[in-house]
Amino acid sequence: MLSRVPDLSPERRRETLADLRASLSAGHPGATPEAFTPASERLVRSGLSELDNALGGGFPRGVIVTLEGPQGSGRSSVLGRLLATATAGGGLAALIEAPAGPDGALYPPSLAAAGVDLARLLVVPVCDTPGVARAVDVVLRAAAFGVIAIPAVALPATAWTRLAGLTHRTGALLIALGETASDELRYFASVRVRLQPQRVRWAGGSGPFCALAESDVTATILKHKRAAPGKIARIACTTFECAGPPLVALRERVLDAPSMQRFVRRTVVAV
Amino acid sequence: MPIVCALVPSYKVEIARHFEPRLRARPLIVADRLERGHVIAVDDKAFLRGARTGMTLVQAGACVPRAAVAVDDPGRNRALWERILDALDAASPLVEDAAEGTALLEMRGIPGSHERWLTSVRTALASDGAFAGLTFALALAENKFVARTAARVRDGSIVRPGEERAFLAPLSLYALDLDERVVERLRLLGIKTLGELASLPHGPFVRRFGPPSARWHAYAGGVDDEPVIPRPRRLVIDGALYGEGTAEREEQLLFALRSLVARVAGDVASAGKRCGFLRLRIECEDGERLELPTLLAQATSQAGTMFDLLRAKLEGITLRSPVVGLLLGAERLEEGGTEFSLFAGNDPDPDVVAIALARLEAALGPRHALRATIVPGHRYETRVAYEPFSTQSLASPHVRPAPPAPKDDATLVYRMLERRAVEVLLAHGVPAAVEGRTVVDVAGPWRIDEGWWSEALDGVAAAHASDAYDVLLQDGALYRIVCERKRWWLVGAFD
After folding, report:
1. Is A170 an interface residue toward B (CB < 8 Å)?
2. Are both B332 and B303 inside the same structural domain?
3. How far is B93 from chain A (nearest CA, A)?
4. Are B323 and B284 in contact (CB under 8 A)?
5. A23 Cα to chain B: minimum distance (Å)
6. What is the ipTM of this complex?
7. Is the dihedral of CA B387, B391, B392, B397 positive or negative?
8. Which residue of B has its CA nearest to A136?
9. Does the beta carbon of A49 lie under 8 angstroms from any beta carbon of chain B?
């Protein structure tokens, strides 16, 4: 009905939706107001415009999302943006991690540089897969954490069924990070994003006078239950250690070429 | 009004030596921390060699090269001092906690003579072996200032009524704990003792040195009207459930617990209080006793919140035999009802978060619900500290800081990997391959050489020297590797 009125202002649209809700709840007691909530309220925006556009506006709430890719692919950088979004508005986020696992633990100062409010980030260190399941179950049941990150561990389908149900009920965004996702996780994830490093830029000369400046990665939407998959987004990840102006990249290493040994030297690439 | 002062001279130094007797052999410096620490107390030997409170540890170490350094532990100091105050309760009903290391006891109405009062305080202090070995200085006088000063001058001093002024007269101005600049100003006026200060006319002296000097003048004359302020008593409201059969199943136990919690919460509310800490004791048929201390996120008198937290705590516990008794104590009582904020907005409910934290603790054990903080340090791994996650700071500040300007790029996040030895192939002195994977780019080394001074200062070997490199491998992995004593370690990855 709304699509037939192209020049509807946002205020008018909100009023119409409110009227619709009122009339429906009067006439149909079973109708839920959530069905008429504008879609933007149910999204967690990463703030990375290309990635958000590829996802149809952002990561949907109430689902399981996987960020897959090898180390150095930028999955933690995307996670950092989502944790920053969750904590910026006064909300809470949870980070369940296995410090002794292959992916280690996220470094809090780099998260703080990404904009995460560390006071609002619950860190739960666990040592095994059942520990991850137990911790995420408790955190999800609290319904107080907007974004919850876990390692992409191999859990049985029954566990993922329960976690998917809890995630949907609480409206949280459950993010699983790993090199690959297990078959069960691939099935229960509503959104799967594959990240791949493309190029790395360095600043300065060589040796101790050289520093990592930024890394470009691509994010491919492998699966999306509510939007078209297959889209690709390019993301630039800058170093967290630069307190002043961004480092000026002086040389770069392209990683997507067939030969990894190709070395491109440029004069100046402004960041 | 006879007052006994029980004083532990140089409390922090005494406590450090009490817990580490080996420190008695050398001059002692107590610092707030080892790394970039500052001196907070020194013993007489270190003082004579020039070490002073407020110096950096390096400065103090230069003054007293052979001094031992102890790191202050405020929690431990406080716990022991509370225990000392508890022991002093046996000597007088009115005990003031003037400062850590200084207690004042009012002896009015207690039968006995001056000497017997001092003896009774000494007996009370000897009753607990936990602080045996600590040196106490006791003194008795008619007011707080004179009693405290007499305890500093000599253990066992008794200043009888009317003798205060004469007792204080020869003492130095430092007895008033004055600022060094004030002492210097008074010295320039020819005033060096309390007697000389007391003989000055009150009005002109106060006009010249400002309102605080009225108190100095009164003290110098042996006058201190301030009464003894009793320390707050720890009030506990508790309830017990015994002799009503046994609870064999979880539902029975929870049913009994629910009624007990309702009763205790009702008592707390009736007293107009809120409780911040619960202590549940469970007694089983086979004699097993289990104690569950539970910290509440915010003080409350709501039975539902208390019960949810205790139930979450019980989730991680298996009992071997039926439960025969429950005892629940509500501690850390505060005045007033539940506090609501007008500015809460969409803030998370602290009670809900507290229950989740209790459940995490029950499911995974302690130290599994943490909050990261950033601390000063030279190496990545020393810049992070973790503390228990608390709900105290969840309330929004009244004025929210402006959100950061949106950026279209992400921040490269570092991952701390479990440190493991790796094989690194060098070419021209820089890494060329890590574990057989070719290095295509490298930055570094960044050299860190720290902690070598710790051994000289306190005999603890904490030296660390390493060269760190960032390497880009052919498969796109960005690692941080470090070389320590010719061994290579993989410590982190940029992701």
Report:
1. no
2. yes
3. 43
4. yes
5. 28
6. 0.80
7. positive
8. B360
9. yes
Chain B positions touching A197 (Cβ under 8 A) are: 476
Same domain, B61 and B110: yes
How many alpha carbons lie under 13 Å from residue B143 in its C-beta half-sphere?
19
Closest Cβ–Cβ partner in A81, A125, A138 for B363: A138
Given a cut of 70, the residues of chain B with pLDDT beneath it are 233-234, 297, 336-346, 392-406, 454-461
Tens digit of pLDDT for each residue in A225-251? 888 888 999 999 988 876 556 666 667
Residues in chain A within 8 Å Cβ distance of B447: 208
| Nearest residue in chain B measured CA to CA from A237 | B410
Please indicate, yes or no, if residue A109 is contained in any of the structural domains.
Answer: yes
CA angle (B9 as vertex; B4, B10 as ends), nearest 5: 145
- B452 and B372 in a common domain: no
B203 with B335, same domain: the answer is no
Tell me if B318 is assigned to some domain. Answer: yes
What are the residue ranges of helices labelled H in chain A?
Answer: 10-27, 49-54, 75-88, 108-113, 129-142, 157-170, 183-188
Domain count, chain B: 4
Closest CA to A72 of A195, A248, A222: A195
* A128-138 per-position pLDDT tens digit: 999 999 999 99
Which chain A residues contact residue B386 at CB under 8 A? 123
| Domains in chain A, number | 1
Count Cβ–Cβ pairs < 8 Å, chain A vs chain B: 225
Measured between CA atoms, the residue of chain A closest to residue B376 is A109
**pLDDT reported for residue A76:** 94
- Is A200 close to B394, i.e. CB distance below 8 A? no
Residue-level pLDDT at A195:
94
Together in a domain, B185 and B126:
no
B436 and B471 in a single domain? The answer is yes
Distances in Å between the alpha carbon of A95 and those of A150, A262, B19, B369? 6, 38, 39, 10
A36-85 pLDDT, tens per residue?
444 556 888 888 999 999 998 899 999 999 999 998 899 999 999 999 99
Q: Please say whether the beta carbons of A87 and A120 come within 8 A.
A: yes
Q: Which domain holds residue A228?
A: 45-266
Identify whether residues B17 and B146 lie together within a single domain.
yes
- CATH code where residue B392 lies: 3.30.1490.100
Q: If pLDDT is split at 50, 70 and 90, which confidence band does A268 have?
A: very low
Q: Are residues B421 and B360 in the same domain?
A: no
Q: How many CB atoms lie within 10 A of CB A3?
A: 6
pTM over 0.90: no
Range of B213's domain? Answer: 172-220
The confidence score (pLDDT) of residue B405 equals: 61
